[in-house]
Write a structure and sequence with these properties.
Helices cover about 25% and strands about 5% of the residues. The radius of gyration is 40 Å and the shape is flat. The protein has about 130 residues and is mainly α. The chain has 1 helix and 2 strands; from the N terminus they run H-E-E.
Length: about 130
């Protein structure tokens, strides 16, 4: 029995395949069509007063600019003075067990386990 998920998957695959094939065909067609001849284009072939657009001659390339003068020598800066020793790392803050925060060195995030009554396993709620 064919399920709806199978039909949807087949339709999606067909759409993708058709899209890829259309893209390939469009690329091939664009590469194989020669560019139009733009030397003389007639805008109206049937009338006796045709307007012709002729290709504009391309201007001559500009002459190359003169070479730039050699840059001035850059002075070598003095070596930097040695930096002061870094400050020692600060000690970690005290562990506040009321919020059940993990220590910074533990590398794990341990949440308190819940018991059946909903209270934390290590705390009891007093009323």
């Amino acid at each position: 029995m064919v399920h709806a998920n199978d039909v949807i998957a087949i339709i999606v695959i067909l759409h993708l395949a058709i899209g890829v094939l259309l893209g390939i065909c469009i690329c091939c067609i664009r590469r194989n069509i020669p560019p139009p001849d733009t030397t003389t284009i007639s805008t109206d072939d049937n009338s006796s007063t045709s307007i012709y657009i002729t290709k504009v001659p391309t201007p001559a390339p500009a002459p190359a600019p003169a070479p730039a003068p050699a840059p001035a020598p850059v002075p070598v800066p003095a070596p930097p003075s040695p930096s002061p020793a870094p400050a020692p790392p600060q000690p970690p803050p005290p562990n506040d067990s009321s919020f059940n925060l993990p220590s910074h060195q533990s590398g794990a995030f341990n949440l308190p386990r819940r018991t059946g009554g909903g209270a934390s396993a290590h705390r009891t709620i007093t009323r």
